[in-house]
Amino acid sequence: MKVGYYPGCSLHGTSREFDESLRAVAEVLGVELAEIDDWSCCGATSAHATNHLLSVALPARNLALAESQGHAEVLAPCAACYNRLAGARHEIATDAALAARMPELIGRPFANTVAVRNVVEVLHGLLPTIRVRAGQPLAGIKVACYYGCLLVRPAEVCSFDDAEDPVTMEEVVSATGATPVAWDMRLECCGGALSVSRTRSVVRLGRAILNDARAAGADAIVVACPMCHSNLDFRQSAMVRRGEAAMPVLFLSELVGLAFGVAPDRLGLRRHFTSARSLLDRVQPPAAAREVR
Amino acid sequence: MNSMEPAHGGHGRPTLAEELRRATGRNPARCYQCGKCSAGCPMASETALRPHDVMRLVSQDRREELLAAESIWLCLTCETCVDRCPNECDPARTIDALREMASAEAPASVPRALAAFHRSFLDQVRLTGRLFELGLMAEYKLRSGALFADVTAAPGMVSRGKLGFVPHPIKGVKEVRRIFDACERANQEKP
Fold first, then answer.
1. Together in a domain, B15 and B104
2. Is A125 on the interface with B (CB under 8 A)?
3. What is the pLDDT of residue B7?
4. How many distinct structural domains can be found in chain B?
5. Number of Cβ pairs closer than 8 Å across A and B?
6. Are residues A139 and A270 in the same domain?
7. Residue A92 lies in a domain
8. A287 is in which domain, residue-wise?
9. How far apart, in whole angstroms, are the C-alpha atoms of residue A191 and residue A149?
10. A56, A59, A27, A82: which is closest to A228 by C-alpha?
11. Are B118 and A46 in contact (CB < 8 Å)?
12. Closest chain A CA to residue B173
């Protein structure tokens, strides 16, 4: 299976481990990630908060590139990129006047034919393979699946799962052999858009999410968004320094990689600010797991 | 739609609700103040105006008050209100449109840190086609005056291999700049 790959700016920078772990997992799953040649930024929050047309045109350039490079679908692992790309695709598909303006605006032919997929959706489509490839290293580990906002909302754009009661991430986690826990904050926003410019709001929102996951008995939180990861992992490091217990925050691809027996370093786990040590100590060595089977 | 609804506010200008309807394709007049948007809003405890307050002020055509409000800049666009609105009013999209109007008509009322962040982010993208994170942080600090915010994070970011030091412009960077120019021009030409 081959899929167009739009890593986005975060996966080339502060969330490198999302890219590294996804590539490692794709290799095991036999998925070829064909990076869109010369992709550009989707504009993220700053474009849609200040210039709506720009917030459609920047994603459209990337969809046009994917189209011209022969892709029927594109995987955008960053939830913000996914939301902007899928949102632009939806808006152009439902607004004929906007669609007519696009080719001139972006200076490229564009027929809006490329489907946009997120990482949960793509991994969920590979559940049988994940079950076969996963050993038992994650047996007994409890995971809080954190969707946040941009993966599932708005419903008309993110139609791969239910916006108020999604199940796909929990099903992927179950396929890895870990156990998803039931908790309340899985769809609450972490404050991503204000991470830099209004940190106190982000700390308030992040703390509530971490506490709820802890109360539900989770050993780790799993995310599929660089902003969620940064807000829960990096912002948590200040709380840990003040003596609070660490709650490891993993990208979904990192958890799947651990289930496949990929070495933690290859998954980029050392790049986290909040140590995943408490979790890794409980991961069964892959060789032992194979013997047990 | 109600034909009794005034199409114009004072001074021959369209009402704010009408202007927003043209900009977003959603009709703010459909809001019946149920408050579901505010009940689910993660920022409601911090903002003077909650989403349903914003919608009410729109209906009342309280333009200057809204465009000067800090609250419209604190929306996280988490889209919870969008999904829960029984009338498809789309408060988040409405707030985005208000921000765009505020940037154009009342730039001084945009909170400095937020204006600095958005401006720095888009400058970096225009410069190289992608977000150069170190450049964003440097420009943001200069624009916001928050010189020491998060400086202690920098060494950790570097030791974890998370920060690049050199921007790598994409081949199509001029193409991206043309998109910025075209979108800015289109906005200025709006009636």
1. yes
2. no
3. 53
4. 2
5. 163
6. yes
7. yes
8. 135-292
9. 10
10. A82
11. yes
12. A40
- Residue in chain A closest to B190 (alpha carbons) equals A53
**A97-136: pLDDT as tens digits:** 999 999 999 999 999 999 999 999 999 999 999 999 998 8
Is B119 a domain residue? yes
Structural domain for B125, as ranges: 112-188
Residues B145, B75 within the same domain: no
Residue B76 located in a structural domain = yes
Contact between A196 and B133 using a beta-carbon 8 Å cutoff? no
Q: What pLDDT score was predicted for residue B82?
A: 95
Q: Say if residue A139 is in the same domain as residue A111.
A: no
Query: Across the interface, do A164 and B83 touch by the CB < 8 Å criterion?
Result: yes
- pLDDT per residue over B121-147, tens digit each? 999 999 999 998 888 988 998 898 887
Q: At what angle do helices A96-106 and B173-188 cross, to 10 degrees?
A: 130
Distance between B38 CA and the closest CA of chain A, angstroms:
14
Whichever domain contains B96, its CATH number is 1.10.1060.10
Chain B contact probe: residue of A15, A36, A50, A201 with most B CBs at under 10 A: A50
In a domain? residue A68: yes
pLDDT at res. B155:
81
Phi-psi region of A70 (alpha: psi -120 to 50; beta: other; left: phi over 0): left
Angle between helices B133-144 and B112-128 (to 10 degrees): 140
Residues 6+ apart with CB under 8 A from A43: A54, A55, A58, A59, A84, B122, B125
- What pTM was computed for the model? 0.93
Same domain, A184 and A149: yes
Quick: pLDDT tens for A51-68: 999 999 999 999 999 999
Does the beta-carbon distance from A149 to B76 stay under 8 Å? Answer: yes
